[in-house]
């Protein structure tokens, strides 16, 4: 698993969108027991905090110690720095295993072997991500050009799995039906600029070219188009299955 977010862990914690309640309602509806959950690549703990409202114990792991340091502490969440593919958990531990916006970074064969090992029989596995942010037609054109052209050579190859909504990742069990959901938020321009700075490709571009591409190529255009607040949307895609053992 790659660590592309330690350098901007604080930005990630401040500017990444949270997930809608309907997503967690879907997860809970497919869980028979609510003892233990594992949130993999937890980042700043967004999903873990929601799971902690329903599960007795949540274990949240990430390979980035900086991300863990920015995570939200709760009494029933244990945060650990661990690889997704090799963990210290015992066999048959979890009722639910989740991965939010991170499955594309994993070694999938090794990771799913670990998922099967640590999951209890009939546990639910769910991985989700969100597609490119949508605002309005004029702003979408600016964002799309920035994403596809300016940052074309700064994205990791794994990012294409997000563009494909994980359709090319082989799952070890048949997928279950999932709802059509989206994240919808009311943002001002500073929210948008902060979010763009949290992109791994932006940080890689800065490191390679010594130029901030947000400031150079997109910020002024967005500020001219972004009056007051706007509704931003992130389409969510979900891949989920029941682990039969």
How would you summarize what this structure contains?
It contains ten helices and seven strands. It is an alpha/beta fold.
- What ranges have pLDDT less than 50 throughout 5 or more consecutive residues? 2-9
Rg, nearest Å:
18 Å
Sheet with the most strands? 7 strands, mixed
Provide the CATH top-level class.
Alpha Beta
The rough form would be described as globular
Based on helices, strands and strand pairing, what is the structural class?
A: alpha/beta
Beta-strand segment tally: 7
CATH architecture: 3-Layer(aba) Sandwich
Number of H/I helices? 10
Strand order of the largest sheet: 3-2-1-4-5-7-6
Q: What is the terminal separation in angstroms?
A: 26 Å
Strand proportion = 15-25%
The CATH topology is Rossmann fold
Helix percentage range: 25-40%
| Fourth-tier CATH superfamily name | Vaccinia Virus protein VP39
Give the overall average pLDDT.
93
Q: What's the number of domains?
A: 1
Spell the H/E element sequence: HHEHEHEEHEHHEHHHE
